[in-house]
Amino acid sequence: MSAADLLSNGPRVVNVGLPRFAEDLRGAGVPVVDVAWTPPASADERVLDALDRLMGADSALTARVGAANAAAVERILAADPVLVDVRPAAEVVPGLEERMILHAGPPIGWERMCGPLRGAVAGAIVLEGWAPDLEAASALAAAGKIRFAPNHHHDAVGPMTGLTTRSMPVMVVENRAFGNRAYCTVNEGLGRVMRFGGNDDSVLGRLRWLASTLGPRLGETLRAGEGVPLKALVARGLSMGDEMHQRNVACTSLLLRTLAPALARTTRDSALLAEVLEFIGGNDQFFLNVAMAMGKAVMDPVRGIDSASIVTAMSRNGTDFGIRLAGTGERWFTAPVEMPRGLYFPGFTAADANPDIGDSTIVETVGLGGFAMAASPAVAGFVGAAGASAALAATRSMYEITAARNPEWTIPALDFAGVPAGIDARRVVASGLAPTINTGIAHREPGVGQVGAGIVNAPLACFGQALVALAEGLDAS
User: To the nearest 5 percent, what fractions of the chain are helix, strand and coil?
Assistant: First the structure.
């Protein structure tokens, strides 16, 4: 720009960093273009070296990773998830053996399990008839008589403690574009429930009813039809204020409206039909478990794409937070899980809370939950965000760490922009922006249950570890 241009037209400014750096210029009417940039979050030289090699302008690996990520995004967007069945886990979950309990998060043994996970395990052991009471169940687990494995190792997911045992009915979601299936237990409802560490007689009685009554009714109904396509249902739910993690009111209602006529045709006992409809209709979070199985079914075909830095799973077990990358396959990268920030039910405070827990972060991995908070301003206050504007800002920030936008899942409040799709570990490390997750809060002691809801961030250390491993793997290939 010449001096004459500057005097006649004024300056045009590119602001690198925080928007407030240029507030005075904007106030004076100077055109400003903001560039969101921060130094890389890690000070670890190995992480910075891996980032430079995988994302640097002069790196030979950058184009290779970019092409792999494009292939990963293509699979995410091409997915066709359909709810097709509800079956006992023993019949459909691969590798679920006798005296095995699947749990949320990366691998963990009894000795490191948090309070709510131990409480849920004890309840599940009694539920399966492996011990007569909770004390004996805990002793059985402590003695190494129960095998533990992550849900993710068996094509499954589960909310909060995430327990899956052989007698529990699971939702079956098939990704018809790739032929894979994923599984998630049926949502128990609110209050004292096993997913929050509950294990008393009311909890076990409800689980037995799900196994004996609700599961078989839903399974027969779904098998009698063509299944329930989920992509369009989720799209409509987003337009009605759901984000599919803390708010599932619209999608639960849409699913019930879809299933009700078929349930009526396959259920001869009118009292039983009323019981089933009442349970689903009275459980605003019923669709959460469907959304989780959907997320797992969408992301599993991305796993194993050579060189890709797209995150295929995020999960936590109440002690560790773990992620997996497409380009590193089955390997977990872990760091201590963080404490959620949010609102507590009357009588509870942050001192009562357990660190974050659950496989439900799979919905953020596909661009829902905290990534789609702009679609659900009603949930922002509930999870402790500052309000609707904070919800919009949360989603906008997640665009910075994802590879694409999903044009089939759009957000009205953002001019129908697609949800952020495909978390790129490189972008997370480069920006220092940790994925935002909407979550429930469990009491730290066994058997108490849910005490609140809030927001939590994935620990950045996981992503740095994953980048180093990806770079080392590419060197060896």
Answer: 45, 20, 30
Structure tokens at 351: 């001192």
* pLDDT < 50 stretches in the chain: 6, 18, 20, 34, 36
Tokens of 379: 């949930």
224, 383, 372, 369: which is closest to 291 by C-alpha?
369
CB 394 within 8 A of CB 370: yes
Q: Which of 47, 40, 39, 38 is nearest to 469 (CA)?
A: 47
Q: How far apart are CA 423 and CA 57, in angstroms?
A: 20
Structure tokens given for 439: 């979550």
Rounded to the nearest 5°, which phi and psi values hold at 310? -80, 135
* pLDDT value of residue 212: 97
**Nearest-angstrom CA–CA distance, 273 and 258:** 15
DSSP-derived 3-state class of residue 41 = coil
As a whole number of Å, the end-to-end CA separation of the chain is: 48
Q: What phi and psi, each to the nearest 5 degrees, are found at residue 309?
A: -105, 20
128, 167 contact by CB (below 8 A): yes
Whole-number pLDDT of residue 391: 85
Rounded to whole angstroms, the Cα distance separating 391 from 382 reads 11
How far is Cα 48 from Cα 430, in angstroms, rounded to an integer?
9
Predicted confidence at residue 11, as pLDDT, reads 64
| pTM score, whole prediction | 0.90
Tokens of 13: 């400014």
